[in-house]
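I'll show one example:
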Amino acid sequence: MAIDPRGADLKRFLQEDPGGPVVMLNLLRFAEGGRASYDKYAKALSETFLARHGGEVLYAGNGGTPLVAEQGQDWDAVLLVRYPSREAFSRMVADPEYQQFTHFRTEALTEAVLQPTTEWQRG
């Protein structure tokens, strides 16, 4: 299962850029004992890289029992992280310093969804 974005994924992500801010939906399923590893990743991310690249955690929480979902569609954690642009997110994941600790995220997870979202226009 895919855990981390690959080069082709990031290329498509940038090609489909509608412009403006992006909120990344993170759905996470932890490996046995993976929560501690993810916490190391999250600490480094929030202390260094989000501010450097203009990111902000909008929501982070534990998943509960789904009300509506197929079997296997439940998640251990959900995060919403806002970036000023898709380019800012891409710069962050390409940052050599970021690359030194992203292995904590990879080791922590057995499955993940990382989906860009854009706000609906109102009116």
User: Anything to note?
Assistant: The first strand starts at residue 22 and ends at 30. The chain has a mean pLDDT of 93. Strands lie at 22-30, 56-62, 77-83, 109-117.
